[in-house]
Amino acid sequence: MDKHAVALVLNSLHTFVAVGRHMSFSKAAEELCLTPGAVSHRIRGLEETLGFPLFHRFTRRIGFTPQGEMLFSVLDRSLGEIAAQIRNIDNQKLNGELTVTCPPSFASVWLMDRLPDFRRRYPGINIHLYSRNDLVDFEHEPVDLAIYYGAGIHPGLHVTLLLEESMSPVCSPAYADSLGLWGDSRKLKDCVFLHDNTPVPNAPPYSEWQNWAYAAGIGDLPFHRCYSFDRWELAIKGAVLGMGIAMGRSVLIRDSLFQGELVQPFPLRVPSLTSYTVVSRQEDVATPRIAVFRNWLLEQLEPGAKNDALRGPELGGLWDGVLSGLGGDTLPVERLTAEYCHTGGKPPTRS
User: Fold this and answer.
1) Are 125 and 91 in contact, with CB atoms under 8 Å apart?
2) What is the Cα–Cα distance from 261 to 263, expressed in whole angstroms?
3) Which of 43, 56, 141, 322 would be 63's cystine partner, CB 3.0–4.6 Å?
C-alpha cells in the first residue's frame, strides 16, 4: 500500500487506534461520537482494504491479531511523534528573551516565588527582571512589559488590570501590645511611623498614610517621629522588627499576617487609589512571549484575589465615630479573623 492509499484510509486508521487504545468498540464509539455499529463497520472496511484481520472477536471482548498489534504499535508511536513535533513547532513562537520591569516590593514579595512555575511551563523564554519604581520609556527602552503600581493611566499603551490593593496600618504584635494600639487611634500619637516615601512616582509625602487617615476620620498624624525609606519592603521589615507602625498593602502583607509577624491593630482597610497593572506597547499585545507572560500573571491570581480575599471591613469614605477618640463612646472591636494572628491571645476588649 502506497502513501496515497494510506491517506485514503486515515479516518479508518484513526478509528482503529481508538479501538485499540480502549480495546472496546463501544468506548471507542463514545470517544469518536459514533455508534458502535459505525465503528465496527469502519474496522471491517479497513480490514478488507488492508487484506488482513486486525482484531480477534470474542463473545465479551476483543484482542489484537499479530498484524493488528504491529500496526497499532506503529500508528501509536507515529501519532506521538507527530504530536511532539507539532508542540515543538508551536513552542518555537515561545522562545527568546523577555525583559520585564516591576516595583521592587512586588518582585520580592509576590513575583519571585511564582517565576519557577513560568520557567517550568515555558522553558524557552528567558526572563530578565529589573526592579524599579519609575515609569518605562517604551519608545527608547528595550523593555517588553512593565508591571506598575499606580493610577493605571498610560495613554498610547496597552494596560491590563492585575491586582487591586487596600491599605491598613500594620506592626508587630508586641508593638501593638506595648502601646495599647488595639482599635485606639489616639495611641497613634505615640507611634514611630515607618514610611515608603516613593510608593508611586511623584507621590506627595506620606500619601498612603494621609489617605488612610482621611477615610478613618483622623486629623493630622504626628509624623515628627518617623523613618522613611525608598522601598516599601524596608518599611515592612522595620514593622516586623518592632521599629514602629507601617502602612501595609493587603496583597503583599498576606503572608506576614498569617505567619503572625504582623498584625492590623485597627479594624479598617481602605481601598488604595492605586493598583497593579501590566503595561506593554500596543503593537506588542499579541507577541506570543509577551501574551503568555501576561496571561500567566493573571492565572496566578486565586479566585477573588483581584479584590483581595482577606476578610475585614473595607470602606472608602469617612468612618465617623468608629475608632476611639473620634466622638464615639463605643468601639466595635472587631478582630479581623486570620489577620491579627495575635500570638499572645485576643486583643483587649473595651467595655
Assistant:
1) no
2) 7
3) 56
Q: Which residues contact 93 (CB under 8 A, 6 or more apart)?
A: 288, 289
Domain ranges of the chain: 3-92
More confident residue, 346 or 34: 34
List, as one string, the DSSP characters of 214-230: HHHT-----TTSEEEES
CATH code for the structural domain at 3-92: 1.10.10.10
Check pLDDT > 70 for residue 321.
Answer: no
Mean pLDDT calculated for residue range 256-268: 90
Q: pLDDT tens-digit profile of 166-194?
A: 889 999 999 999 999 998 888 888 999 99
CA-to-CA distance for 291 and 285, rounded, in angstroms? 6
| pLDDT at 219 exceeding the cut of 90 | no
Are residues 342 and 181 in contact, defined by beta-carbon separation less than 8 angstroms? no
Q: Tell me how far CA of residue 259 lies from CA of 39, 170, 226, 235, 253, in angstroms.
A: 59, 13, 26, 18, 10
